Write the structure tokens for this entry.
Amino acid sequence: MTLKYHVISTLVEDKPGALAKEIALLSENGVTVEYSYAFLGSNNKGALVVLRADDQEKAEKVLLSNGIGIIKPNEVYRV
């Protein structure tokens, strides 16, 4: 059996505290992050963060309204 989950991908600066700010922003807006993982891409533009929230639609709106871009699934492999 295969389960599919909707996740959000963002690009976060590779510096201490950058991910914490993104997670705090979601928390302050009532969004709970269920899980996340991150890794560095090959282009040195930052860390690719993949997260699943309890309310994906709200999480996307919060991130976008605060200037945090969402990376589309077909763009993830280019990071």
